[in-house]
Write a structure and sequence with these properties.
This protein is an alpha+beta fold. Helix content is about 25%, strand content about 25%. A hairpin with a 5-residue loop joins strand 3 and strand 4.
Length: about 120
């Protein structure tokens, strides 16, 4: 009987602990869409360099480990004559619609948390 009571107590503690971890995970996911408990290597595929026209950026984006934390100013290095057409924000991302002097339109995707450039989308019309 004593073993049964101990087993029930241990299972109760495990349930409370797991519910706490679950609540924490839901809270973190709600405040940070990129949050993961575990990175099992099956996440986002590596980005490839576009094979079309040169992106409007003067240099390459900083590596993830050198990206400024809590950045205040970010120079996008747009090509001379490039025009920012529209800016929108959603889900921790900043979307910047740019028209290049060549007429090509691109959408730059930035992470609002640290300013990293997540990708460039060529818009073909």
């Amino acid at each position: 009987m004593k073993a049964l009571k101990t087993l029930i107590a241990v299972m109760g503690i495990l349930i409370v602990g797991l519910m706490t971890v679950l609540g924490y995970g839901l809270y973190r996911k709600g405040t940070d869409p990129d949050f993961r408990f575990f990175d099992l290597g099956g996440g986002t595929p590596e980005t490839t360099t576009p094979t079309g026209p040169t992106p409007p950026l003067a240099g390459t984006p900083p590596a993830a480990d050198t990206a400024p934390q809590g950045f205040a100013t970010r120079d996008l290095g747009l090509a001379p004559g490039a025009e920012v057409r529209e800016i929108a924000a959603a889900d921790g991302r900043l979307y910047i619609h740019v028209r290049l002097p060549s007429g090509l339109e691109q959408i730059l995707v930035l992470n609002t948390a640290d300013g990293r450039i997540l990708g460039i989308v060529n818009v073909n019309r």
